[in-house]
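Fig. S4 source data, part A: sequence.
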Amino acid sequence: MRHVIAIDVGGTGMKAALVAADGTLLYEARRPTGRERGPDAVVTAILDFAGELRDHGLAAHGETAVAAGLAVPGIVDEANGIAVYAANLYWKDVPLRALLSERLGGVPVALGHDVRAGGLAEGRIGAGNGADRFLFIPLGTGIAGAIGIDGRIEAGAHGYAGEIGHIVVRPGGRECGCGQRGCLEAYASAAAVARSWAAACGDPAADAADCARAVAAGDPKALAVWGEAIDALADGLVTGLTLLDPRVLIIGGGLAEAGDVLFGPLRAAVEARITFQKLPLLVPAALGDTAGCLGAGLLAWDLISVEVTA
């Protein structure tokens, strides 16, 4: 059974799979990144995990993986296979593609950005399946984005395309981790909603899911916090759709788990803001937290396809 190794590296954990050519997940596993032990330990954990997956593939399917795909956070130089910077993992300029290929006996390796990999999966086999143009936006600790065009993800000239979370929607507003003030991420990420709700309800342990439940129950303080986030998100989305004219807007991440509590008012807010623009289909992501891993698998299979075509 021909297969590839797919690994999605997060701030605290890694998701991995052996993926067949038709997209079937032959094996799935998870491991901690071990970031508390430092950047070198994270790299070692990735390589060891990949080695375990290779050995499992050989034992279970009679051959080792023909390629591997690795999706990581932060700034990624996909062309040269380098993880340039990741604040949560404490690394800088790590040649992950070369290191992983060496560990796996020289097989081809694709290195990708975690959100763009997730967007690739949502576009090909998830909520955007069949759409020629889409924008995938996960609302988690931060807000990022992936621009889908004809089955591929646009990375931009320097690898920064899609960073919609750092569009300024409230000039001079809250400070963002990027150094600007008023960024979308500072108002509409799950982390931002959690901070606002914790302050409003007086419970420092409250999170965005708690706020969503309070909204569903009609709590006026929660409605105010939620409404602020929806307004900021709608402003950011309208900027994005004005620039990109996507056919589908795919919203994922932890905040999207609120379901209609989020999507009902968000659709209304976006529709109220558009004038000449064409309103895209606005849908929840379909693949959940497996999107990045599936995307890494697609990147790996794309490498094999290129080799066969060549």
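Fig. S4 source data, part B ends here. The mean pLDDT is 93.
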